[in-house]
Write a structure and sequence with these properties.
Helix 5 packs parallel to helix 9 (196-211). This protein has twelve helices and eight strands. It has helices at 15-27, 35-42, 71-76, 94-108, 124-141, 149-158, 163-169, 172-181, 196-211, 213-217, 249-253, 281-285; strands spanning 51-54, 65-68, 84-87, 112-115, 190-194, 223-227, 239-245, 262-264. It is of the alpha/beta class. It has an eight-stranded mixed beta sheet, sandwiched between helices. The longest helix has 18 residues, at 124-141. The chain is globular and about 45 Å long.
Amino acid sequence: MAFDAPPLFTPGASPLAARNAALDWAFYDVGSLSAAEAGLLAAETTLEGSILVVHPNAERAGVALEKFEGFEGFRAAPGALLRRFALAGVGSSDLGAAALARTLANHLGEPVGAIVAGYGAADLVAEALGGWFFFGGANRLLAPAEPPSKRLAAAILSSDDAASAASRRLTWDAATLLRLLREPERQVATLLGHSKGSLTISFALQVLALADAANFARLGEARVVTAGAVQPMPPGLGDVRQFLGALDWFGELNSDPTVRRTLVPHAWHHLNTQTPAHLDLAAALAGRLD
């Protein structure tokens, strides 16, 4: 693949959008997006509460993605219900979320929903504090051995009955993921998380396992893949694979040391295949790193 610099200064792009594009390019495989897709997403200034539907586009031609500004618009879109979802990590905006989802979409040959956390470079510190600390602590409290775990999970789900209530109690990506997992007509088959997105997936699955057994049982055949953070997953999931770069001290700091992982030699925290020391997510998904 040719080396492509990120389109940081496309016409109409704000300075904030340019900073977000630079951050996403540093951590994600933005080269998997077409020039038109990257330019469109890099120029965006709306970073909060969006869902992207990212289609396979191995040829990197044209625009093969759609953006929905909120859950209701996404849910009302015609067509088959999506079964695959990806959640990017700290500091990611639309561009990074789309790049992560594109890697999975190309691997599966199916569209993937990218749940955008709602933070870009301007909110990196707030995302780190609210994401790592909240979800890291919550994931420990939700462990089945902890007495408050079921009460905490029930309280979280009670706030998730309405999107507005959930968004006040949870980060937008966690609230959205819980809504998707609890839709009885949707059969989620794949969840992919990177960095803080891995913590969000662990959080949502543990809440579901403790307080909504019926919907959790439907995930028994789902595949869960994380990269850049290793987190506890509830028993009952048939296919869980967690990857961590051998050089990824940041991911290690935010991982549970007791959870099994696949260490990737010579890899750090980022997934950008155009820079050294990357974690090759496409190879991980294909089983070439096991």
